[in-house]
Amino acid sequence: QKEVEQNSGPLSVPEGAIASLNCTYSDRVSQSFFWYRQYSGKSPELIMSIYSNGDKEDGRFTAQLNKASQYVSLLIRDSQPSDSATYLCAPRDSSYKLIFGSGTRLLVRP
Amino acid sequence: DAGVIQSPRHEVTEMGQEVTLRCKPISGHNSLFWYRQTMMRGLELLIYFNNNVPIDDSGMPEDRFSAKMPNASFSTLKIQPSEPRDSAVYFCASSSSGRRLTEAFFGQGTRLTVV
Question: Phi/psi of residue B18, each to 5°?
């Protein structure tokens, strides 16, 4: 089993809709969780971090964490064409290791 | 802060040649990561350092790859000899790892082409 699993997509949503991106991880000791966005030809950039169970909102983005189910998600409200990118999930454990999922490609249709 | 700085941005080399990629982490960060990204395999963790000490190099593909961090402000990833299958984008990232494990910040990457 892969350490971090994401649906590769593409996930296609119309402009203005909610995009829901999901991630499961196998390491039960993961403590910190990060969502990165990567545009084609660019380096990954941080979108959200979450450390505790529950929801964390930042503008149009909401991260949701459920450690018991080893599941973390990212919701993007009012999706814009500029949100079209690959979204990478990255749990981090106490050994400092930071592993990335293969990413979900999001396409927002105008 | 200028962020994580990688050099060179692009490297084209012939098979069998030695390649050295360089990274300057963000000042004050004590964790450093080297990743390789390809379409087929995604973003793979090659090696990471904490306080200049290699913690886990299990992602290094083979003995042709080596990495060093002689001090807190500099790291190198060396491939010797290089092969066409090493062609990829190599990213360096740094973070602080104190009481809370914070996010990693990425450099611009080095696009390596081995012909």
Answer: -85, 140
Q: List, as one string, the DSSP characters of A55-80.
A: EEEETTEEEEEETTTTEEEEEESS--
Using the Cβ of B5 and the Cβ atoms of chain A, whether some distance falls under 8 Å is answered with no
Residue B14 to residues A54, A102, B10, B20, B78, Cα–Cα distance (Å) = 51, 29, 14, 13, 15
Query: Bridge partners of A58?
Result: A61
Q: Do B55 and A45 touch (CB under 8 A)?
A: no
Q: Can you tell me which residue has the tokens 């590769």? A: A8
Condensed to tens digits (0 to 9), the pLDDT of residues A3-26 reads: 899 988 899 999 999 999 999 988
Of residues B53, B48, B61, the one with CA closest to residue B95: B48
Cβ separation A32–B45 shorter than 8 A: no
The answer to whether A48 and A57 are in contact (CB under 8 A) is no
Contact A86, A105 (CB under 8 A): yes
Q: Which of B105, B101, B108 is nearest to B6 (CA)?
A: B108
Name the residue type at position A12. S
**Residue A83 in 3-state DSSP?**
helix
Could you read off the pLDDT of A82-101 as tens digits, one per residue? 999 999 999 887 777 888 99
Q: Would you say A66 and A77 are in contact if contact means Cβ atoms under 8 Å apart?
A: no
Strand, helix or coil for residue A34: strand
Please give the Cα distance from A37 to A57 (Å, whole number): 16
